Amino acid sequence: MSTTEPSASAANQGIKRRRDGDDLPDYKRQRPNFVQPAFPRLRKLFTCLGEPSRFPLPESILHCAKSFTSAELDEDVALSMFSLFVNISIEQPLKVFSLAASLQCVNNTESTHGAALVKYILERTQSYINAGDWNNVKLVLRFLIMLKPIISNFEAIVGFIERLLDRAIVLKSMCTGRSPLAEELYKIVLLSLPYLVISDSSDETKEKATELFEKSKDYEHSAIKAEELLNPFVDGEAPYRFSDSLELLQIQLSNLVEANWELQLLYDYSTIAPASDFEKHSIEELQLPENLSAWNSSKSPEVFLKFYTNEQVETTPPVDRIESTIFRDLLTDTLINLNFNRQEVARQLIWFDNFLRPGLFALRETSLEKLSQAKPGSSTWKPEDIAVEAVLAGLFRLPESLLKPVYFHSVLIEACILAPHAIAPVFGRAIRFLYCHLEHLDVQVIYLYADWFSHHLSNFGFTWKWREWTEDLNLNELNPKRVFIRELIYKELRLSFPQRIIETLPDEFSDLVREGDDVPPFKFALPDEPYSEQSRLVLQNIRDRKGPDEFTEVFDEIKKKSEELNDKADAHNMVCEIFVMAIVHLGARSLSHVESWIERTLPVLMVVCPENGGESHRRVVNIIFEYWKDKTGTAVQVVKKMMNHKIITPLSVVEWILLDSEVDSFSEGYSWELLGFAIDKAKLLIKEAEAVPRTVEDVDGDTKLLADEKLKEIDDNVETLKTTLNHIFVTIVKELARPVQGDAKNEETVRWQRWWKEGFLRAVLRNYHGDYKDLQEPLKNLGLTDMFILNIIEHTVEL
Predict the structure, then answer these.
(1) DSSP-based three-state secondary structure for 303
(2) CA distance 82 to 48
């Protein structure tokens, strides 16, 4: 056909082009058949196992098992799935029971998967043992225990638990005081015993569990005096019997043995896959190295905290029942190990009851009034109470929480957003419980409480029933309840702005709102001030980014003016005050602004504030707080930045708090925040000095030691910093031990001043007990006569 001849398609313009078969009456275009890879599909199924679903739990368990066995898995995908199962047992321990049941069904269908799985879990357990990761050993060992129906020689697991107990007893007998490693091993053993019986309730298993418990009594655990320092309630005024977790666990297991190990916590998984149907697999024995490491053993004893006591009904398990420890342990491990996903943690807290036996708990959102009218024999345990209590116990753990406090705040906020009707009333009762006992709470717990509550309110419109506390505004200004109200409002102001907070407060509380100026005036530059001309020149020089030499003239003018006025302040101190306040004023718009101005003027600041200028450094802190007197939170942040740039020393900040501030300042949150930061900064400086390289590479690339004088310089710097840290602790003890002066007219004020000083001292010595071990005797030899302080110093040795 000629190229100029019209084509058939051109001749039929306007007719829709059809694909082959389109004109057939039964034609239907097929969509691409996309098959999701096996691993993502199975991962989603197993990670959601046990969560609320439109399918009953048995169906979900069987569906997961069937999906796993029907999938074509190569070796790498199978290993990835086995790794996922172990990770679920560690990060989401509440799901380990239904997961184990599903894997037993997998073994029933495809025993080769069961054999490979058990072998893999055993290898992971051994790796955690060798690494000394004992919390993971506890969790993965529990996973193995729940897989008992598919293990033929389960006595290998029981034998390992017994060897752990033997080693714990030996380690404890070798120590006159505490042995954190022995305590960790002992806890693993005691917590494993209930799960042995849960996995197999036969008489033989119960006898073995009883035998192990009787043997555990050879472990000589006794309460230490230092536990008083870990109690959030002081003065012996705890609203419940206070005890450490190991002592409590012994009591609970003793009661469980007397009840013949009757413990019904889980769904009856035997109805899904009877144990007799499983093919069992032999396992090798776990090896316990001669020398055990313990990189994650708790440095201080763990205590059991409760926040829902003296209720009209019992909403949490009694402390003498093993359920209280089992629930707390499961929830705490979920909180800590799944901390990278706080939303998922919050969801699992809310669904806590879904993972355990139906009927074990009351229905969620059930009010206390309805629970009090519950039928005899029905449960009154509220799952939301148990979950929130576990989070609060983690937040208020002393001497410090395992994760940053803000993480626990965030989890509680997420839980309240997800289930406000269930969680909000629980929060309200916890908040009122803590407030009611404020006069008997540890000082550190009071500040933690204020931080959490203010953060929580900031996410929910700052709304609270403030009128409940109106009468407490008449209390002494240093009474903990009055202080808490004040600090709570101050912290709200840091998270918002005055007018917004005033709108949420009753009129009686509005006087506690410090409004202040967004940018306070630079007082030295005011027209009526004698230094106004020089101060404005200082401001201009700073804006022009002039160097130290270019400030000489204006500094000389300030000194001359000071001499003319016979100013009580030293001439150089006046230069320091004007220059520092000028920087703070220029940076008043934001913390990033002040950081920028500090960095720009650093050379001049180093001249104005000499390295060894103790009093001048304290004056700098005083200037900052004078400028930001209505916004002490901002002042704290500016002082921190000054310390970070080494303009002022941690010691000078500590001395300013203890020597220059009023006694009442110990009730101020900024004093606690600043004192802790200064001590931490002093410790960090030591760590940085010790990390300075002691070797250098020559031109040939060979490594050699620095010159002797350089090494001596490094060592001398480290020793100087250590001496400074020791001096900080000596200063703290000396000044806080100083008696409070007062007369009969202000007897209550003096009593509370003493209370806050003692609380400060208790908290500091408890939190930093490992940093002043070498100072135990020197501190005792300071001539102290107060037995309260001497007892604290003595007790911290046991922590």
Answers:
(1) strand
(2) 16
pLDDT tens, residue by residue, 713-770: 889 999 999 999 989 988 998 888 887 876 656 888 989 998 999 899 899 988 988 8
**Pairwise CA distance, residues 317 & 678, whole Å:** 42
pLDDT per residue over 197-232, tens digit each? 999 888 999 999 999 999 999 998 876 677 778 888
Q: How far apart are CA 627 and CA 650, in angstroms?
A: 20
Q: Is 620 exposed, middle or buried (0-12, 13-18, 19+ CB in 10 A)?
A: buried
30-58: average pLDDT:
82
Q: How far, in Å, CA of 513 to CA of 499, rounded?
A: 9
What does residue 441 show for φ and ψ, rounded to 5 degrees? -90, 150
Q: Which helix (H) or strand (E) holds 704?
A: strand 703-705
End-to-end CA distance of the chain: 100
- The token pair at 485 is 């109200």
Determine the Cα–Cα distance for residues 232 and 217; give it in Å rounded to an integer. 29
Six-digit token string for 637: 């942040």
Pairwise pLDDT comparison (466 vs 548), residue with the higher score: 466
pLDDT at residue 406 in the model: 96
Question: How many Å apart are CA 131 and CA 137, to the nearest integer?
Answer: 10
Measured CA to CA, the distance from residue 581 to residue 524 in angstroms comes to: 9
- Give buried/exposed letters for 580-591 (b at 16+ CB in 10 A, else e): bbbbbbbbbeee
Displacement of CA 101 from its chain's centroid (Å) = 33
| Contact by Cβ (8 Å): 762, 792 | yes
pLDDT for 261-272, tens place per residue?
998 888 888 777
Q: How far is the C-alpha of 625 from the C-alpha of 662, rounded, in Å?
A: 13
Q: Enter the tokens of residue 533.
A: 């001309």
Lookup result for tokens 């002040």: 594
> Is the separation of the CB atoms in 239 and 432 below 8 Å?
no
Count of other CB atoms within 10 angstroms of residue 678: 25
Cα(643)–Cα(610) distance, rounded to whole angstroms? 13
pLDDT of residue 28: 58
Quick one: which of 194, 97, 190 has its CA closest to 147? Answer: 97
Given a cut of 50, whether residue 193 has pLDDT beyond it is yes
